[in-house]
Design brief:
Beta Polymerase, domain 2, two-stranded antiparallel ribbon, ATP-binding
């Protein structure tokens, strides 16, 4: 199989091959770019291997361009990187690796192309294309990677137990590639996953979450999570999600399996958005159900308060898994806390007050919250699902009406604490907070309109009831005008 015609579409490959020839070293295109070329998948990351110094090759390639090309050299790793427009080129010398049991850091030595390919994770990534004049464009495929692509199979080039024990992160990568490409995992390779799952403990949480997020970002992440669960990999870093699995029964009353329900919600969300953090909200929305599960003989299984407890659990889970602890975590936490609220509104009669409160609490995230709630309807009863979705349509229309009328989303009370203190000569105190809270509640209840005039009038009424007077005539004049 020869890819010369494909390589000729981009002069990068000719330049790299020519640079290798000038240095007298054999040069090859390797790894993921070769795989994606065969799969007709777009890729902007290109890896080159040479039997010699990868740094010297990168420097020679950089000199071959007329304009300055940014070159980054990593001497400790024997690698170099070139940035060329929207392409990222990485260069490394062919090498062989050996590992110590207690670490994933390999002992690296110079090696042949064959040794370089056999150390790679999977057969589909263990292919090379020659950039040398005598066989330019020729595919080198010692482990039948092309065959495994045709068979849609993830398989290690060497004995899988050795591959995963040497570098346990490859177990996460196996699941990630299976998820991204919708491939199966070879039976022996999958067995090795289950046997070596505890080895994942030597991998940092930062490395694991990179692979996990790539699974979450696939079109149907449930496939990857099922593989993680079945292989016991999930148990090593996300025990809270594992605990969702299973069904308890008492007196013929059972609850649904919340693990598979969560995966269905996640897949449903993925049909609506590519946003990673809304997908994480789907993963986390029922995370506290095991902790709140109770059996009531009259009503069956309950999970009262799981939304609040789940919101409280979110920061600790994010921190342990090295997910961001910034506004993205708070966004997920908010959606977890609020995910039951819209469901409670899908009734024939819903008050404007309830809608105002939901708009106030959700703010700009109300649309994402409604997506999550729609995704949360996973009943096998199609009529029930349709009825809920139609009710959500009605709720969204009412939300739009209330928002258009009252501008509640993200509103701040029209009278600030500073203004209250200034008018009544107060220092920061509980009474200032009470006045602000009463004004907010009056707006949310629809007792007054959401504007400064109505709010200030109510402020003076509240102050009068509490025996508080303005500090000057100007404020009294303002009160009388109001």
């Amino acid at each position: 199989m020869n890819f010369k015609s494909k390589l000729d579409e981009n002069d990068i490959f000719e330049k790299v091959g020519a640079a290798g020839a000038r240095l007298g070293i054999k040069t090859y295109l390797v790894g993921g770019f070769v795989r994606d070329l065969i799969l007709n998948r777009p890729s902007k990351d290109i890896d080159f291997t040479c039997v010699g110094s990868g740094i010297s090759l990168a420097q020679e390639v950089a000199r071959s361009f007329d304009s300055h090309v940014p070159l980054s050299v990593f001497k400790n790793f024997g690698t170099a990187m070139l940035k060329l427009e929207d392409w990222e080129l990485e260069f490394v010398g062919a090498r062989k690796e050996s590992y110590r049991l207690e670490s994933r850091k390999p002992i690296v030595e110079d090696g042949t192309l064959e040794e370089d390919l056999e150390r790679r994770d999977f057969t589909i990534n263990a292919m090379a294309i020659s950039l040398n004049p005598e066989n330019y464009g020729e595919l080198i495929d010692p482990f039948d990677g092309v065959g495994d692509i045709k068979r849609k199979l993830i398989k290690t080039p060497l004995e899988p137990g050795i591959t995963f024990s040497d570098d346990p992160l490859r177990m996460m990568r196996a699941v990630r590639f299976a998820s991204q490409l919708t491939f199966d995992i070879d039976a022996d390779t999958f067995f090795a996953l289950t046997e070596n799952a505890p080895r994942l403990q030597i991998i940092s949480a930062e490395r694991i979450i990179v692979e996990l997020n790539k699974i979450v970002e696939t079109p149907k992440p449930s496939y990857g999570f099922k593989l993680l669960f079945a292989s016991k990999l999930l148990h090593e870093f996300f025990p809270e999600m594992v605990e969702l699995q299973g069904v308890d029964s008492v007196d013929d009353k059972s609850h649904k399996d919340n693990f598979y329900h969560t995966l269905q919600v996640l897949d449903n969300v993925c049909t609506m958005t590519e946003d990673l953090w809304l997908r994480w909200a789907a993963i986390m929305h029922d995370i506290a159900k095991p902790a709140t599960k109770r059996f009531n003989p009259k009503v069956g299984w309950t999970f009262h308060g799981h939304e609040d407890k789940g919101a409280r659990m979110t920061p600790s889970i994010f921190r342990r898994m090295k997910l961001p602890m910034d506004e993205r975590m708070k966004y997920v936490q908010k959606l977890v806390r609020l995910h039951l609220r819209p469901i409670a509104l899908v009734k024939e009669e819903v008050t404007d007050s309830a809608l105002r409160r939901l708009l106030f609490d959700a703010g700009d995230d109300i649309d994402d919250l409604m997506k999550l709630c729609r995704a949360d309807i996973t009943s096998k009863n199609n009529k029930k699902v349709l009825r809920y979705l139609e009710n959500f349509d009605k709720v969204e229309e009412k939300l739009k009406e209330v928002e258009g009328k009252d501008q509640i989303r993200n509103f701040q009370p029209p009278v600030s604490g500073e203004e209250i203190m200034d008018i009544f000569g107060l220092s920061p105190s509980k009474i200032v907070g009470e006045i602000k809270e009463e004004i907010k509640e009056a707006i949310l209840e629809g007792k007054i309109q959401n504007n400064p005039e109505a709010a200030r009038k109510l402020m003076f009424d509240i102050a009068r009831e509490k025996g508080i007077a303005p500090v000057d005539n100007k404020s009294n004049h303002q009160e009388n005008n109001d």
